[in-house]
Amino acid sequence: MKKNHILKILSIFVSSILFSSIVLGCHSKKDESQAKASAENKEITVYAYDSFLGEWGPGPEIKKVFEEKTGLTVNFVEFEDAISVMSKAILEKDNPIADVIIGLDNNIAHRAIEADILESYKPSGADELIPQNLVSILGGDWKITPYDYSHFAIIYDTKSTLPAPESLDDLKNEIYRNSLILMDPRTSTPGLGFVAWTVATYGENYLDFWKELKPNILAMTPGWSSGYGMFEKGEAPMVISYTTSPAAGIEYNGGTTFKTLIFDDGHPIQVEGAAIIKNAKNLEGAKKFMDFLISDEAQKTLPLTQWMYPANKNVALPPCYEQGAAIPEKTLTPNPKELENAVEKIMETIK
């Protein structure tokens, strides 16, 4: 009996040790998992296009200040254009990598909304900072938050011996053979903006315009950076860009030969926005980033880097905007859902 009693006590003792080891091991693994999750939540992944993230874009400064203020780390992932940003986010819908995407504009926003990849979120102070008309242009439900805007326009180099066109119709003139740089509307939002301009101006006759325009297109680049870069090098006297673009030459060079051409038939507007991805891995970090993106501190970097008007109405514009930017009297707002078929037909027409 005594021997059996001793064996029973030893058995209970060993079992207790094993149980404690299992419990401690479980707690250890749980703690490690929580620590890992905590570490991961120190980082947010943001998809954006190249000119936003480039050396002269707002991305580096926004990242620096945001990280200093929050203690979070921003992992920017660069794409050539905003359409690529959106396409990648849609492809990753079932297992999202990005927490936030930057660059959705009013001509492609509906695609992201219809793909159901966006989390609705109204940033802190948004009602006081962002004009309602900009919000409405991007859907009005805070799935996409505006951060900047401008109008598309033809930018003309006044050093050219060619006369400046006075309308879209003038661009078809044979004197402008190989004189215009555009961007591919399948990959570039300025390229799609030019398509929107032609559809809004010519209605169902837009293809007739493109047929006559074709000989005058020198190049159709994948994105804005490459196209505007060609223009700056003097490879063509005209390029599709923004009414605000010439302000950069005034700020950095004390003057510019580039001029925004304002046409009486109107100009399409571009409102750019950012959005949180549904099922983002760091939702709280993403919300903090969105709050910061529309703050005075972040928005004041945009005029001299993004060369667009900040969405935050409290931000003052630098003097170069008074001299180099232009605001058209007439704004065109074509239905963005009509543009996808138009792009396909246009590319077939000019191939």
Descriptive notes:
It is a single chain. By secondary structure, the chain is of the alpha/beta class. The protein folds into two domains: 43-149 and 270-317, D-Maltodextrin-Binding Protein, domain 2; 150-269 and 324-350, D-Maltodextrin-Binding Protein, domain 2. It has 15 helices and twelve strands. Strands 1, 2, 3, 4, 5, 6, 7, 8, 9, 10, 11 and 12 form a twelve-stranded mixed beta sheet that branches. Helix 8 crosses helix 15. The longest helix has 39 residues, at 2-40. Residues 1-24 and 26-38 have low confidence and may be disordered.
Keywords for this structure?
disordered N terminus, D-Maltodextrin-Binding Protein, domain 2, alpha/beta, 2 domains, 12 strands, twelve-stranded mixed sheet
Percent of residues in helical segments?
40-55%
The rounded distance between the terminal residues' Cα atoms is 98 Å
Quaternary structure annotation = single chain
Radius of gyration: 27 Å
Q: Output mean pLDDT.
A: 90
Which stretches are poorly predicted, pLDDT < 50 over at least 5 residues? 1-24, 26-38
The name CATH uses for the topology of the largest domain is D-Maltodextrin-Binding Protein, domain 2
* Total helical elements: 15
How is the main sheet built? 12 strands, mixed
* The first-level CATH class name of the largest domain: Alpha Beta
**How many strands?**
12
Count of folded domains: 2
Tell me the strand percentage band.
15-25%
CATH architectural category of the largest domain: 3-Layer(aba) Sandwich
Class computed from helices, strands and strand pairing: alpha/beta
Any idea what the shape is? globular
User: What's the CATH H-level homologous superfamily of the largest domain?
Assistant: Periplasmic binding protein-like II
